[in-house]
Specification:
333 residues, single chain, Cytochrome Bc1 Complex, Chain D, domain 2, 2 strands, heme binding, mainly alpha, 2 domains
């Protein structure tokens, strides 16, 4: 992922070569979201089916879309998700939208990329409650999937690597360009309101951009929750320390993207902030040591609302039917 400096140098260089002024965002710490590039369409179409297929769960009821609902900002709007046997998830489900921009996946960064992340919930007993072996065997019992895997990968053999690769390829398409703020960055002066522009200036000058920068306005680093003042929570997640084993990483979480934030409530890893107003207030106090006035808070929230981009649009997939040998779901064991 490009740093803020390299983005500026890149666009300034293009401007010099073209003999024109640098784009408006060349000197900004935030860059516009770009449409997806270099997507394998066949793999993405297969991945879309797998993303929506609840048969990848033991109950036959939970799909990737259950917790990362593409009609709800790529999340489920719950503090923590509901998993197999109605189990309560351990942490707030982050949005899948623009997740290809993240430095790593999950709040604690335990998955290096989208493909590694895609395999986690399937085999998690508190999420989809299945196993990779059972999921692969189930897919192999469905003639329609065998045919599609052969067409897409050149072999009818189905394994978890191909399954997760296809899901990840679909998830790469889930970017949300053309937000009002992106249009402002690209020179459309009236794309956002004066209040939102004031909020952006506050956002920059208060130090929010130290963590929320780049095209994703987040997702590029891990930071401690509670830099200035402790963050009180009953959630047991310890963040990056669970991956590194380093006590210095305790309570360090991947900085969440602010893209589409008005759709992805509730906020924080424990889902305790229900509104953007509350989230801005808490982050100001515990991360910046600043108490925003009501007017300042409202301006920042107005800016955050300009980060909602064009949502992914596509035809819902028609899933291939199970065969007589397909194992039935077990929702009530």
């Amino acid at each position: 992922m490009k740093s803020r400096r390299s983005y500026r140098a890149f666009f300034a260089g293009l401007a010099v070569l073209a003999g024109v002024a640098a784009p408006a965002f060349a000197e900004e710490p935030v860059q516009p979201i770009e449409p997806p590039k270099e997507i394998n369409l066949a793999q993405a179409e297969l991945g879309k089916k797998l993303y929506f297929d609840p048969r990848l769960s033991r109950s036959g009821f939970i799909s990737c879309n259950s917790c990362h609902n593409l009609s709800m900002g790529g999340t489920d709007n719950l503090k923590t998700s509901i998993g197999h046997k109605w189990q309560r998830g351990p942490i707030n489900a982050p949005t899948v939208l623009n997740s290809s921009l993240n430095v790593a996946q999950f709040w604690d960064g335990r998955a290096a990329d989208l493909q590694e992340q895609a395999g986690g919930p399937i085999a998690n007993p508190k999420e989809m409650g299945f196993s990779h072996t059972l999921a692969v065997d189930l897919l192999a019992s469905i003639p329609g999937y065998v045919t599609e895997f052969r067409l897409v990968f050149g072999t009818g053999e189905i394994d978890i690597e191909r399954v997760t690769h296809a899901i990840a390829e679909f998830e790469k398409t889930l970017v949300t360009p053309n937000a009002p703020f992106d249009r402002w960055l690209l020179g459309e002066a009236d794309a956002i309101s004066p209040q939102a522009l004031e909020g952006y200036q506050l956002f920059k000058n208060s130090g929010c951009v130290a963590c929320h920068y780049g095209p994703g306005l987040g997702g590029s680093s891990f930071q401690k929750m509670g830099l200035v003042a402790p963050y009180p929570t009953h959630n047991e997640a310890i963040g990056l320390a669970a991956v590194t084993g380093n006590e210095a990483d305790r309570f360090k979480f991947k900085v969440p993207t602010l893209r589409n934030i008005e759709l992805t409530y509730p906020y924080f890893h424990d889902g305790e902030a229900q509104t953007m107003t509350e989230a801005v207030d808490v982050m100001g106090r515990i991360q910046l040591g600043r108490t925003f006035s009501d007017a300042e808070n409202a301006s920042i929230v107005a800016f955050l609302r300009t980060l909602t981009g064009d949502q992914p649009r596509f035809e819902l997939p028609q899933l291939p039917p199970s065969s007589d040998t397909t194992p039935p779901p077990i929702p009530f064991d």
